[in-house]
Amino acid sequence: MSIIASISADVLKSAQQQIQQDLTQALDAFALPEPLKGAVYHAVMLGGKRVRPALCYATAALQPHRHVAAVRRAAVAVELIHCYSLAHDDLPCMDNDSLRRGQPTCHVAFGEDTALLAGDVLQSMAYEVLGSRLFDTGVAIESGIVLKQMQILATASSKMVCGQVLDLQAEGKKVNQEALENIHRNKTGALIQAAIMMAAVTIFKGTDPAIPQLRQFGQSIGLAFQVQDDILDVTAETEVLGKTAGKDLEVEKSTYPALLGLDAAQAYAQQLHDQALQALSYFGEDAQQLHAITQFLLARQH
Amino acid sequence: MSIIASISADVLKSAQQQIQQDLTQALDAFALPEPLKGAVYHAVMLGGKRVRPALCYATAALQPHRHVAAVRRAAVAVELIHCYSLAHDDLPCMDNDSLRRGQPTCHVAFGEDTALLAGDVLQSMAYEVLGSRLFDTGVAIESGIVLKQMQILATASSKMVCGQVLDLQAEGKKVNQEALENIHRNKTGALIQAAIMMAAVTIFKGTDPAIPQLRQFGQSIGLAFQVQDDILDVTAETEVLGKTAGKDLEVEKSTYPALLGLDAAQAYAQQLHDQALQALSYFGEDAQQLHAITQFLLARQH
Hints:
homodimer; mainly alpha; about 70% helix; Farnesyl Diphosphate Synthase; two-stranded antiparallel ribbon; globular
């Protein structure tokens, strides 16, 4: 393992431990009736790469700040939104997937009605967490910052649904690269960018030139993530992927490998990563963690 | 028509016109792709009594204030949450209803996948609206108030889902009155109370004694609404109700008439209304609009 890969693994592992702990604490703070509680824990606690919280933490690490609790709440909130979207995506009327992260999907384990409601409640729980005092140790955060976090999260969540609709509309059709990018900027990119921007508005003032740099970074890394996902759907085995491989091809989804060919898709992923790193160069050494995650995302096999 | 009934009808009609106009303006501000856009408009614009926005406006009318735009946003947000819940409740994996407000339900008109996504996006749109500058004419509202609105809405939305789960769990079982009230305080009561409290925190300081009075009013009227709903399911015709009558009995739902008998259920509805009016007595003449709506809710036939 190269030194860079090893740093990436450490940053990711540390973020994963943090978010696992914080998600547990957050979920435990809710009084949910069974079987909803079981379904919510199932949807949230199975694991996954936790890329969004990791990006949230790594962005907050760009400078020393006193808003640790607010960043931790943002990371939990964005992951809850991500988990709600997965629970709903897997439903029979959507992708009808039975396997997620190597485990039965939420509706397979808990029934369709409970999986639907688990997704629904995860969405409102995200805003409850954001507006709570969870993880606070003293200094309360200004309301204006929480409000900005909420706006970013809500806008990205709506975009995510729009992207999902555009994606369903494109099934079985041949779309061009511009249309495909529009799908992915909404479907996946928006929430990844939100994870970064929720931290950004917490630690930087609205007028700070860091903000547009991070927005650019978020855009590039968000799209790069999806291109890589498309590539892995072609190249990886179901076992490694933890979800059904080759699924995109089967339902005639438009993907980057299908559109550009595998080699060109890989080159495009590399190009987007270079763009992401370019945006980070503004921060110099301070962006070490964001660098590490960017590196990990390009190298990932699942 | 008695004078009181006529005032009630006027207050309701005026609220309905206002919310119809504001919902249109709010939805038009979003760029949604088809068929999501069609499904969202279908779910939202079909009408309905608009009880929650009416309660929101009537609460804000308790005193002169300068936060008209924030109250209008709150009314839109709470109605979007209500509409999302209806779209999801009607889905085949839930109540499997094909008729709502005398029209085909969202999934009948647009397909299950689109109805699911319409519900999902309506939830995030509610928070987008809340955090927006929609309807603003000048004075921006303090972030702290919007944050409180968000907390109230998110908590009520989570409770609504919990109530839904408790309700499903109770089907075919005999539950006692305490359990039934717990279901309804969550499933219906929480969001009705939220409509009132979102306006309350906008126009009153947190320490104002008006706040607990309105919380009490919201609790009583929320439960009264559901008791009345149960009664109408037994007594009304499908045509008047705009949704399938007798449905509760069919799926062996626990209801107040089933638990207490029809007469006792009607007496209980009256008692809850009296409690609601008692809480309003604190406001004297200022609560005229809230009185009128309370009156309407007890007398309603659908």
